[in-house]
Write a structure and sequence with these properties.
Structural class: mainly alpha
Radius of gyration: 20 Å
Helix content: 55-70%
Oligomer: single chain
Order of helices and strands: HHHHHHHHHHHHH
Strand content: under 5%
Shape: elongated
Largest sheet: none
Amino acid sequence: GDGRDWMAPGFRAVADDDEVLDRLQSFDESIRKVALQSLALQGERAAAYAPEVAALLQDDHAEVRRAASVALGKIGLSAALHARNLAAALRDEEPAVRAEAARAFLGLGVEATAAHAEAIACLGSDADEGVQLAAIECLAASGEATRLGAALGSRFAAVLRAALVELSRSPAARAAHAAHVRGLLAHGDTSVRLAAVQASGEIG
């Protein structure tokens, strides 16, 4: 081989390093975005580039910021050092960036998610349906379903259904939000009422 097979994951191959960094710092936003997408595909093998990826969460272009969020999540646990940067992206002006930032926390691990769970939970009352759904996905998968209260006040039926399904899987969350669930038994959407019946049945 080329002598690199002994290298630990995350080791920056010098021959490739400058080229990757040039792409990440390109004046062309499409090149920056494609570079981030390539790193996302490499997953944890791209760990050495996590600082540069995190810096692009503040890019001027929303698609680049979104790609940076995805890439950090795919890099995984070794990107947890940049959880604070990702938490700032939860307040991005673009819904797609906020949603991907929430999903990216799943890759950073339970500890990083727990440290920023309150900020993620706040997205349950976001103006965008996709952002609310991403928050539910992240909180439920991270064992933070007790924080789904904001989502239970959503005006989107799909969000209410998703939150109720997750509540039905968590005894602690069911107990914490029992009154709210019972209130949804009278919701105008049939699928929401059915989900509430299931969740309240689990409550007993």
